[in-house]
From TrEMBL:
<keyword id="KW-0723">Serine/threonine-protein kinase</keyword>
<comment type="similarity">
    <text>Belongs to the AceK family.</text>
</comment>
<feature type="active site">
    <location>
        <position position="382"/>
    </location>
</feature>
<dbReference type="GO" id="GO:0016208">
    <property type="term" value="F:AMP binding"/>
</dbReference>
<feature type="domain" description="Isocitrate dehydrogenase kinase/phosphatase (AceK) kinase">
    <location>
        <begin position="322"/>
        <end position="580"/>
    </location>
</feature>
<keyword id="KW-0067">ATP-binding</keyword>
<dbReference type="GO" id="GO:0006006">
    <property type="term" value="P:glucose metabolic process"/>
</dbReference>
<keyword id="KW-0816">Tricarboxylic acid cycle</keyword>
<keyword id="KW-0904">Protein phosphatase</keyword>
<dbReference type="InterPro" id="IPR046855">
    <property type="entry name" value="AceK_kinase"/>
</dbReference>
<dbReference type="GO" id="GO:0004721">
    <property type="term" value="F:phosphoprotein phosphatase activity"/>
</dbReference>
<feature type="binding site">
    <location>
        <position position="347"/>
    </location>
    <ligand>
        <name>ATP</name>
    </ligand>
</feature>
<keyword id="KW-0808">Transferase</keyword>
<comment type="function">
    <text>Bifunctional enzyme which can phosphorylate or dephosphorylate isocitrate dehydrogenase (IDH) on a specific serine residue. This is a regulatory mechanism which enables bacteria to bypass the Krebs cycle via the glyoxylate shunt in response to the source of carbon. When bacteria are grown on glucose, IDH is fully active and unphosphorylated, but when grown on acetate or ethanol, the activity of IDH declines drastically concomitant with its phosphorylation.</text>
</comment>
<keyword id="KW-0329">Glyoxylate bypass</keyword>
<keyword id="KW-0378">Hydrolase</keyword>
<dbReference type="GO" id="GO:0005737">
    <property type="term" value="C:cytoplasm"/>
</dbReference>
Amino acid sequence: MSQAVFPKLLSSQIAFDIAGTIRDGFDKHYRLFRQASQDAKRYFEKGLWNEAQAAARSRIGFYDHRVQECVQLLEDEYDPAELTDEVWRELKLHYIGMLAGHKRPELAETFFNSVCCNILHRSYFNNEFIFVRPVVSTEYIETEELSPTYRVYYPAVDGMTFTLKRIVTNFQLETRFANLSRDVAQVQERLQYFFGDELAPNAQFQVLSSLFFRNKGAYIVGKAINGDRELPFVLPILHNRNGELVLDTVLLEREQIVILFSFTRAYFLVDMEVPSAYVQFLRSLLPRKPRSEIYTILGLQKQGKTLFYRDYLQHLKHSSDLFESAPGIRGLVMLVFALPSFPYVFKVIKDFYPAPKETTRAQIKEKYLLVKHHDRVGRMADTLEYSNVAFPRHRFAEELIAELKHHAPSLLEEEGDQLIIRHLYIERRMVPLNMWLTNAEAAGNDLDMEHGIVEYGNAIKDLVAANIFPGDMLYKNFGVTRHKRVVFYDYDEIEYITDCVFRKIPEPRNEEDEMASEPWYPIGRHDVFPEQFGKFLLGNAKIRKFFMKHHADLLTQEWWQARKQRILDGFIEDVFPYPQSIRFCNQLPAPPAPAPAEPPLFSETIENE
Ligand SMILES: Nc1ncnc2c1ncn2[C@@H]1O[C@H](COP(=O)(O)OP(=O)(O)OP(=O)(O)O)[C@@H](O)[C@H]1O
């Protein structure tokens, strides 16, 4: 902010009033947001899974509703077009003043940006008028309510068994545990290698005060400290078949905890008085995870988006490579590009799509929105949606500019050295599965090939459990993450499983039918013929071998129909965000101490009842 325009006195009553209206709008938003997290506890206790799912979904829309409500209030009350630059400048300063002592200033700043960007022209999107950079510090904000951000327990003083039990009972869940002593004994056994026989004087557990709720699970998140070593841990609590609670396992490997907090999953519901303190704690467990992703997974996705954008701008400033088309087979509806030095891809909806695609921009956006609101069960990438993103033109490869002009002219605007893209999605970059399989085959790496196919089938099975039919199941529509998990990212043809009609190919009625090059039987819009999947998936002999070994059921109509029926019967599947092998009920010996050289190769499988 230049000195010349900095107001010496804050004299505008209107600026003060508008600042108050925006702050109140944000406070209302956060009150409702917290209420949803508090409700999640009740749903979990009572096993009301449908209600829990619906509440998690509707919470995603809260933010935009509150922003719109606030914009409407301001437009009704004032004429924003009439406000002078002077008033806008004072507005930001008044707002900063109002955030002194606020428990969530970073979120309130973002809310201010959302409201003002709805009203102001793009030329005002700078630090003079909005929070391009944060102003109010989030460091050392303390809670005022009864519970601190995290609680500390000392096993050397109270005994290990008592302490572990206390950690769980302190959450005061109203449902009883089937056998907490048994579960705690198993946790204790798995922690034995960390604490050894003699506890260091500083031995302690630090445990976040609120539970993390998602789907049918509640998670206790914390870390154990012994001497100079720290061990992150997560205790998942589930219902057993009798509706009693059990500790299902304890996650002790960082890799497993990273996957629990993955961008491919639904957001947690956590009741946080000071969210920045939660983010700071979680970062101490997952130091490589950007703060933007931690805010997002906590359901504060606008804050995640804001921080992501700041990180992105900084990356742009400190890099010099060029944006270019993403490697792999070009999409028919999306134009995908990336900056090689940056682990994300940018996706633009093309203006025209060749046959056989029959869709529209609005329909594609709807599908992406569906994924945003749906449980992504670890198998669909989350996307960040942006409008009017300005790129420095000189950072674009000429071929990419030509492609953009050819495929998406309606979304492009040029302003000096700025290339503005009116609408795009940003998503984590992965290795397209078709490339992964080709590379593995070229390297003679059968293990990787088999892993890719096992994961591919598991991804489809997890999606189906969440009522998602991918539509286009070609390998190019799936990506492999850093953790070697296969994730779906092409959403323009997805449907609900319950809307699909899974059919067998009818027996030919005569020789003519048999010889027909086109199907002789009528095909409905939602008809799916699983027997035909092999035609486009199994051309490669090795892939065929691995596929038939692990996932032959995917080629039968019966399998799909049975899964559809379970969903129609109201069954909500369990999808475990950790390997089956570490669940206490599988009673395998305690896994060895963490720190594997390679990320573990495992697949999440759906519990067979
Ligand atoms: N997250 C990602 N990471 C890496 N590459 C990606 C990612 N998303 C897309 N791609 C690349 O871009 C291509 C097109 O993306 P996508 O499948 O989303 O587009 P589409 O137009 O919907 O495709 P289709 O023609 O199959 O409908 C992919 O085949 C892949 O090569």
